[in-house]
Amino acid sequence: MGPCTSPSLLLLLCLSVILISATHATDCSSLKLAGGKKQYSNCTELPTLNSTLHFTYNATNSSLSIAFSAPPSKPNGWIAWAVNPTGTGMAGAQTLLAFKANGSMVVKTYNISSYSSIVEGKLSFDVWDLEAESDKDGKMVIYGSVKVAASTEKLNQVWQVGPGMADGGPMKHDFGKANLAAVGELQLVEKLSPAAPSPSPSTQASEKGPNSGYWVSGINAGFWISGLISLLILM
Ligand SMILES: *[C@@H]1O[C@H](CO)[C@@H](O)[C@H](O)[C@H]1NC(C)=O
Ligand SMILES: *[C@@H]1O[C@H](CO)[C@@H](O)[C@H](O)[C@H]1NC(C)=O
Ligand SMILES: *[C@@H]1O[C@H](CO)[C@@H](O)[C@H](O)[C@H]1NC(C)=O
Ligand SMILES: *[C@@H]1O[C@H](CO)[C@@H](O)[C@H](O)[C@H]1NC(C)=O
Ligand SMILES: *[C@@H]1O[C@H](CO)[C@@H](O)[C@H](O)[C@H]1NC(C)=O
Ligand SMILES: *[C@@H]1O[C@H](CO)[C@@H](O)[C@H](O)[C@H]1NC(C)=O
């Protein structure tokens, strides 16, 4: 009798599949993109303005592909995501900004060299594949790719939302706490754990901390065991 002809084994197999996919789900599942037409290897919930960033960084050709999602502050407002190669705030931000014009979403690039100089035009690095969309809940998404300097491990990013466009340019955003806090680092390459000589294999297991892979596989084992117990109860 093969494993798949035995009902209890089949149930066990199904249960294992469910358990495995559950434990492998990443944070990204709750950060579903509005359109969801592109796949990214990483995602992060930005700390303010209800925004998220999905991204894929290819270190080989130093290209960063992103999807920035946020609700604009007013239904016909704008959303923006920027890399600041020279500072940490808005001054210097090389910005991708999306808004709805005549019913369709457009993305424009702005060189924001200072608070009083927001100039539509080329950025200080290459950008391509710019696109934007909005969903029925009013969330907007900016898609795009940017070239970063070789060997970049992290970037200063800035994001923002605003109420609308006027005279072809973005209207001022609010200066609330959440708006002013919309800056941060984007880690492109996972940080190595604090510099320390790598432990020898014999001591490795005991030195593994709570964030180690061992602990994670411990959770997996826990799920497996509790799954087996509930299965036994069911039978
Ligand atoms: C973020 O979302 C929450 C709940 O959906 C809402 O109450 C809040 O006003 C939103 N904040 C912004 C800045 O849109
Ligand atoms: C990264 O870019 C290089 C050069 O274009 C390409 O060969 C490689 O397949 C890319 N890696 C991924 C994961 O897409
Ligand atoms: C780098 O590689 C990725 C994946 O292969 C590709 O999408 C991207 O266009 C490449 N970037 C450049 C600057 O060629
Ligand atoms: C919207 O359409 C009007 C009329 O066709 C045109 O004058 C205007 O430039 C368009 N706006 C944008 C941002 O494309
Ligand atoms: C952005 O604006 C600043 C100030 O006007 C200028 O020095 C810089 O060259 C501009 N960057 C690009 C890519 O045009
Ligand atoms: C991005 O995701 C990949 C694959 O899941 C992972 O190896 C990498 O460490 C992540 N990068 C960051 C910066 O978290």
TrEMBL record:
Residues 1-25 form the signal peptide. Keywords: Electron transport, Membrane, Signal, Transmembrane, Transmembrane helix, Transport. The keyword Chaperone does not apply. Residues 49-162 form the DOMON domain. Pfam families: DUF568 (PF04526). The chain crosses the membrane at residues 214-234. It comes from the Eukaryota. Its main location: membrane. It is found in: Membrane. This is DOMON domain-containing protein. It comes from Hibiscus sabdariffa. The lineage of its organism: Eukaryota, Viridiplantae, Streptophyta, Embryophyta, Tracheophyta.
